[in-house]
Structures are given as C-alpha cells and as structure tokens.
Design goal:
18% helix; elongated; five-stranded mixed sheet; alpha+beta; 6 helices; single chain; 363 residues; Immunoglobulin-like; six-stranded mixed sheet
C-alpha cells in the first residue's frame, strides 16, 4: 500500500485522497451512488366520462404537462445528500394509454456533479369520477326554484335569470360537486336541480344582489349516513315583477323603485319628492303599472311652471302633461302610459339612455 502509515485512504480500493462521503474515492463513490430512482411504470387514472384526472385521491382538471410533472414528482426519489437538483423531461406518446417520460437529472453529491438519464412509463387506466358517478345516478343536494311576484315573468326573463348561474360558475373555484343535475320550466317558473347546497346558496345571493327579491330556504331530511342526517335544500327565489325605475302601484300611490337593499327596496313617489324604504313583505301588494322599456322620452315644445306640451309619438298630435316635481326647463320628459293617459315621471339615473349620454358628451 502506497499510503503512509496512519494516512487516509479509500475504504473500498485503498486509493489515496481526495476522499468523499463515506471515505471513498471518486470512482468508488460514483460506482456505488445513484442520484435518483424512478419506477419502471407509473399508473394514473382518468375519468372515462369527463376526462378529469385523479391526483392522490382527488379529481382535478389539469393539463397533460401538469400531469407528467405530478407523476414525476410523486415517484422520483432523490439521494438524501443531493443538492442543486435540475430536471429535464420529454414525453413520448406510445399509445392512448401509454406515454414514456424521458428524464435528464443533474445534482451535486459531496461536491461531485452527477448526471443521469431515466425513463418511466405513464400508464393510464379508465375510471369514473365522483361527479360523473353522481350525475349518472341523478344525485342532487339542492333545488333552486325561480319564481316571481307582482306579475308573471316572460320566458326571456327566466332565461336571463338562469344565465346568471353560468356567470357564478365561471367565477367560482373548480369543485366536482358544482354541477347541474337537471333543469327546466315548471308551472309558474323555472327549476334548477344542483349537486351542491353551497352552489345553490351562492347563486341565490347573486340573484338577490342583482335583481332584488326574496329567498326562502327549506331543508328536508331524506335519510341518514354514518349516523348523520342527510338533507336536501329547496331554495325559493322570488324575483319582484318590477325592475329599478319601473312604475308600481303601492299603498294607493304610484312609486318607482330606485335601488335594492338587503331587506327590500328604496321607493320614490312619483307625484312628490318622497323616498321610503320598504321590505319585500311590504311590497308583496305592489302591482306593476308600467315598465321602463315602455317609457318614451319626449321634447317639450311648450312648457310653463306646471304643464308641458309635446308631440304624442303614438298619434302625432299635440298633448299636454303635468310636469314632474323635479323638472327643469329645457330637459326632456320621461313619460309612461298609465290607464290610457300619459304621466310624466321624475328623472332617475337609470333613465339616462346611452344615445342621449353620447349626445351630451359630443356637445
């Protein structure tokens, strides 16, 4: 042995320093050290119905690139002393079910650079996710009933309410339970059956904030599972038959709702300057007299302090109407046809038409 007595030497071959981890020379360390280990095959499951992937017991909608990264990081075992790991990967499709993942791995162990190449086969198996299983079994947790008060809504109005559910779903995080089991028109309204109570409540809050109205929740017990009651939610949403700015008959006078509140609406009286808050219960007796899309904007040809004359667009003759309490000289009038007579309405911000706004800005 060439090493001087008492000096360091490789425990495997007796070579002189430099020595590395476990007191081995570089060739012996490299021969006995593996930077990374990967199994030959990595199974994964895809839902045969909707195509989402099961990741550690949870079904997710991910891209192929994200799936390969997940499989590699889930199965890759790196040497415990390895540092500065760098990884390159190239997938190779073999068939619909098999993909080869070619990997190049670099890392530093005991100040020595290691480089390795590995190949792992990703093997796909078909499954069925919880959502598709429940959809196939017509599973549901909640029913949202769209109804109205004060007047019957048109089909287009119900369709507009229904489209808001799509907007809510786009903004919510992905959840496998956020699905629609069934839906369709029923006598007096429209019903949507959902897989999630949380989705039903979120949609209900959105409807109230957007269109006003009243929500009534009812829970019914349908059985027990693991000692816990299984319940289903029925959420009744009653949309007021009027919109902001419409004319309604309420408490023997004509009013216009100006804004929604948590409990009801702010009402503005037409014949004088008066505003009051009203709950949905208070407004159950309100009847729609005229809707804003039927209003007409007219230019007064002659006017004094109380009356304005205009050209009636329906018969093309001169008519007169009592001016609203907030009228100012030169401003167009907003008219509604009520009981066969024209009634001039006070102005609200919702009355400003886009064309009129553009004309004012151009001027």
């Amino acid at each position: 042995m060439s090493s001087r007595l008492g000096g360091d030497f490789c425990l495997v071959c007796g070579a002189e320093p430099p020595l590395f981890g476990d007191r081995m020379c570089e060739p012996c360390l490299r021969a006995r050290t593996t930077l990374a280990k990967l199994p030959e095959n990595a199974p994964w499951v895809r839902c045969a119905r909707c195509g989402i992937v099961e990741i550690q017991g949870k079904w997710e909608n991910i891209t192929e690139a994200e799936l390969w990264d997940e499989l590699v990081h889930r199965n890759l075992i790196v040497h415990e002393r390895a540092e500065e790991i760098q990884l390159g990967m190239e997938p190779q499709t073999v068939s619909d079910r098999h993909t080869l993942l070619h990997l190049q791995i670099e890392g530093v162990i005991d100040n020595l650079l290691f480089q390795e190449e590995h190949t792992m086969r990703a093997r796909m198996a078909n499954g069925v996710c919880l959502t598709c299983t429940r959809r196939a079994g017509n599973y549901f947790e909640a029913t949202v009933q769209l109804r109205s008060s004060a007047r019957r809504l048109s089909e287009e109005e119900f369709n507009r309410l229904r489209r808001t559910l799509d907007n809510v779903l786009e903004k919510l995080a992905d959840d496998p339970m956020f699905f629609i089991t069934s839906e369709g028109p029923v006598t007096g309204g429209y019903d949507v059956v959902l897989g999630s109570k949380g989705l039903a409540r979120t949609w209900g809050r959105h409807l109230v904030s957007e269109y006003g109205g009243l929500i009534v929740e009812t829970n019914s017990t349908v059985g027990r599972k693991d000692g816990v009651d299984v319940t289903r939610l029925t959420l009744l949403y009653r949309k007021p038959g009027y919109e902001i700015g419409d004319v309604v008959s309420w408490r023997d006078h004509l009013w216009r709702p100006s804004s929604w509140t948590k409990e009801g609406a702010i009402m503005e009286r037409i014949d004088r300057l008066e505003r009051t808050g009203a709950s949905w219960r208070d407004l159950e007796s309100a009847n729609v007299i005229a809707q804003r899309h039927d209003f007409v904007s007219v230019e007064f040809i002659n006017e004094d302090s109380s009356v304005g004359e205009f050209l009636d667009p329906t018969v093309w003759t001169m008519q007169s109407v009592k001016l609203p309490f907030d009228h100012s000289t030169g401003r167009n009038g907003i008219l509604a046809r009520i009981d066969g007579e024209w009634v001039a309405l006070h102005h609200m911000s919702v009355d400003e038409l886009p064309v009129e706004t553009g004309q004012k800005e151009d001027g």
